[in-house]
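ingest -> validate -> predict -> emit
validate: passed (alphabet ok, no gaps, 402 aa)
predict: started
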Amino acid sequence: MSEQEMELSEQLPKCPFPHIDGLGLEPQLRHLLYDQPNSKMSLEYGEGGAWIVTRYEEVKRVATDRRFSRAALVGLDFERITPRPIAPPGSIFVQDPAVHRQMRSALAGAFGSRALDRMRGQIQRTVDELLEAMKADDGPADFMSAVADPLPTRVICQVLAIPSDDEAWLMDQVGALKRIDPSHRTTALEAQKTLHAYVVSLVDRRRRDPGTDLVSSLTAGAEEERLTDDEVVSLVISLILTGHDNVTNELGNIVFTLLTDGALRRQAETDFSAAFEELLRYIPFRRGVGTPRVALEDVTVGDKMIKSGDVVHVAYMAANRDPEKFPDPDELKPDRLKVPHMTFGWGAHRCPAEPLARLEIEIALTSLFARFPGLKLAVPQHEIEWQRENVNRLPLSLPVAW
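emit:
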């Protein structure tokens, strides 16, 4: 980075994304959505500044325009909100179309309708077991530790055929890896290495002795189409990380919202599908912005010229509150006109495990309220503790009674 570029970076407006409690749109994102769309800002870590795109149509444009590259991030100390990049080199999240398409297509069968039909029964049994254990305590119980946290761990371990004895250890590594406080940097890096070594060993075993699980499927295929071991390892780690977070975050946030909004809960009982989509749109389940892209040439977005080499973040959570697409965006309206939300991303990098996440959340929610029709918060709403150690936004605990 040249001295002139360093000076320009230091002059850019600072844009930290501090933790906030609850599920309101972050003040910084609200400001960037309503008052300063398509602004170049300085984030907490990295150098050079980054554009933050917040409006729905412009987010959609950047997410689908091949002139914006994820692969070009590799090796850059780009501006971000975490001490280290969330997506490591080789991850599916930092691949461009040719490699990304091959990696994503390898997952297509695993999360297709037939595969999900086969998994439905197992997921239902897992949910029933967790709810039965929660009920056995006679309440109050913490919904997060009883259901929201263990459910996706068990499901992804079943999909990958990871031994149940390894589940708790695996999630300890994931938890340590996600810590973003600089004081935990060494612990996070060690957890990253430990998890990587575990998955490398897992892939090696399945390559030599395949079964019927997803890891075995990823290592199979014709020689010219087969993924490398590094690519399989990257996919498996990505599934472990995102498969847990998406489900846990959404379950905790949706249950909190339904238990604090009686009218919405009644609407959900009448039309679950519509309420579910509106909840997914409304809830900001993570903090700030995620993995950005790099402009490969000069591109005009909105009224701004983004120069070749510039880093560009898209803010999906802000796009979900764009009033031009969602009138009265801060209100929960299950009967609003159906405009696709961006909670699972958009374009080629839309979450590949979205169908599985949706199935888990749907089964868990419908089963929860069927078994506990009188479910309520066991503490006043203002006493709910919120997670403040990583980029996820969700209740740290959610005491419930029935």
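The first strand starts at residue 39 and ends at 41.
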